[in-house]
Amino acid sequence: MPKQLKILVVDDTEPNLLLVSKFINKLGHQTVQARNGLEAVEKFSEESPDLVLMDVMMPEMDGYEATARIRELYPNKWVPIMFLTAKSHDADHVKGIQVGGDDYITKPVNLVILEARIKAVTRIAELQRQIVENAEQLEIYRDENERELELAKHLIQKITHYDYLEHHSIQLWNKPAQHFSGDIFLAALTPADEIHLLLADGTGHGLSAALNVIPVVEVFYGMTSKGFAISSIAQELNRKIKQLMPIERFVAATLVSINLSDRIMHVWNGGNPPALFVDEKGVVQRSWKSTHPALGIFSDAEFDAGTELFHWSEPGQLYMFSDGPIEAQNASGEEFGLERLTQVLASNPVEQRYEQLIAAIDSHMEGLPAHDDISIGLIRCPVNVPEDSPRQETDGTQQAILPTTDCPLRWKLSLRLTPSELKTIDVVPMLLAWMDQMHFNTNHRGQVFLIFTELFNNALDHGILEIDSSLKNGPDGLELYFEQRRLKLADLQHGILEIEIERLRQHHHENLRMRIKDNGNGFDYKSITSTNISDSTRPSGRGLALVKSLCSRLEFSGNGNEVTVYYTLA
Fold first, then answer.
1. Residues 337 and 468 occupy one common structural domain
2. Predicted local distance difference test score (pLDDT) of residue 531
3. Is-contact 257 234, C-beta < 8 A?
4. Can the peptide bond before residue 49 be classed as cis, meaning omega within 30 degrees of 0?
């Protein structure tokens, strides 16, 4: 309130009106005069005074009614109203306060007391003014904050779902503790149509937790699209988060790679509750507990990107969780818990299991807000790959810029890999990334990735590491095979693998020639290449037969340690 107040003086007696007005002017304040209640209401509306001195007994409208009208017309604008009246009974005082008055002075007016009351009311009015100003400022801040939150929510939604794989076999339930969720669930396809999943849980909740997990999005989508294994993705995610975030802002994560055709999944769990593979009867066939620290804690040298492999023989569902579902509390502070969670999965039919789990968690919380973000990811894992299984789709917007058909790019790439490179480099995605830089047509990306992968793995596994494919036979064969692969690769001291890729024109067609040679003992390639790729029951041997079906030519040399294929581009 300014030092000079505007005071509305209301009195139907002219001497009183002039006396009080003159005294107020001497105090340094401005006066506005009204001679009845009706005029007082009009002047209040026109002049917006800082204080009202109101007589009670007046013609046309008395002071009580005028005060009540002012309070009714301006419910959100508080201006102190002080009654000046000869009525001195307690009932009169009570009525004055009930209609909206703030103070009561009896006539004849003691000017010293009036001055003191004006000063007291002025202090109250100043506090009220500050409260109103602060409230208005808070309202502005709130509106700005709401706009910024909506923008942030929109951007985070766009960023996390930019390349998200939408498919009916993949579901997510997310219940944020605040406006923003610090949990994200990402799904994408590799060039070979393997499904990559990531459930990440940033430290804390709200906007800070949501910002904490944004760095993982670009890395996950980018590396998945290039065909990197989830072990390489986990390594890069750890490096990125440790580089960008404070040490206390780590990210718990579950990474999964699923090959529906071979019924194989690889799982990396760092800091999240166990991921569960549940069969159609509700029995947990495999549980992946956290065997790694969360992302962003360890250095590159300390970080372990090793994954666990699982081969399913019966249809089931893979469930992934943040810690929110496990730690969801009821009014008594009791957590939902992993035991109750698995009981819900076991006691419901497969087609209702996911929805019943969500309903059980909601019921347990008894309508209380979540203390932490709650996320449950689900993917259905059939035995026979359905026709509508997720696959890469390419359209005109996804094409690389191609050279003209009159003058196509001609190039040749040669690599020689020793044990140190074979242990540390994800070779196939690296080759594909290089070809992308050469304006390689993305329509062929998936098939070329598959060909590269099969030829490279065949040369490494059988030529250099000398792993017997018969290990894959039997109930735990694939797990044993990949465990031996991991151990042998870690101990590898000798071995050379040569790769040569060339784009050339032969017989009026654009071709991609790929040659891979290892210095191993070779293998019986004749029996392998005669395998029918439709024989999905065989755990081994189908890869090369598939390569043969995709390429125009497949040729082995020597004792099987060198293979050359020709893939038709146009």
1. no
2. 53
3. no
4. no
Taking 50 as the pLDDT cut, the residues of the chain under it are 1, 394-407, 533-534, 536-539
Residues 205 and 340 in one domain: yes
| Residue with tokens 């790929």, as numbered in its chain | 514
Per-residue pLDDT at 181: 74
Rounded Cα distance between 23 and 240, Å, is 74
Q: Are 17 and 35 in contact (CB under 8 A)?
A: yes
Q: What is the pLDDT of residue 161?
A: 66
Are the C-beta atoms of 8 and 40 separated by less than 8 Å?
A: yes
3-state secondary structure 283-324: CEEEEECCCECCECCCCCCCCCCCCEEEECCCCEEEEEECHH
The strand ranges marked E within 35-107 are: 51-54, 81-85, 103-106
Based on the fold, state whether residues 261 and 313 are members of the same structural domain: yes
pLDDT at position 69: 93
Tokens of 258: 């699923």
The answer to whether 317 and 256 have CB atoms below 8 angstroms apart is no
- Do 294 and 416 lie in a common domain? no
* CATH code of 181's domain: 3.60.40.10
Strand runs (DSSP E) across 312-383, as ranges?
Answer: 316-321, 374-381
Domains in the chain, number? 3
Q: Are residues 374 and 450 in the same domain?
A: no
Least Cα distance to 236 among 196, 206, 203 occurs for: 196
CA 9 to the chain's CA centroid: 62
Per-residue CA distances from 150 to 146, 156, 265 (Å): 6, 10, 37
Structure tokens at 227: 């065909």
In a domain? residue 397: no
Cα dist from 381 to 200, 313, 319, whole Å:
21, 10, 11
pLDDT of residue 398: 35
- Look up residue 39 and give its two tokens: 């005029």
Instruction: Give the domain extent around 71.
Output: 6-130
- Which residue from 259, 378, 382, 280 is spatially nearest to 320, judged by alpha carbons? 378
pTM reported for the whole predicted model:
0.71
Q: Within a 10 A sphere around the Cβ of 533, how many other Cβ atoms?
A: 16
Task: For the sheet with 170-175, list strands across it.
Answer: 170-175, 374-381, 316-321, 275-279, 284-288
Say what angle helices 111-160 and 14-26 make with each other, to 10 degrees.
70
State the pairing for strand pair 251-259/284-288: unpaired
Q: What pLDDT is stored for residue 400 in this prediction?
A: 36
Q: Are 101 and 67 in contact (CB under 8 A)?
A: yes
> Which residues lie closer than 8 Å to 500 by C-beta, 6 or more apart?
412, 413, 414, 415, 513, 514, 515, 516
Q: What is the pLDDT at residue 528?
A: 60
The pLDDT value given to residue 405? 42
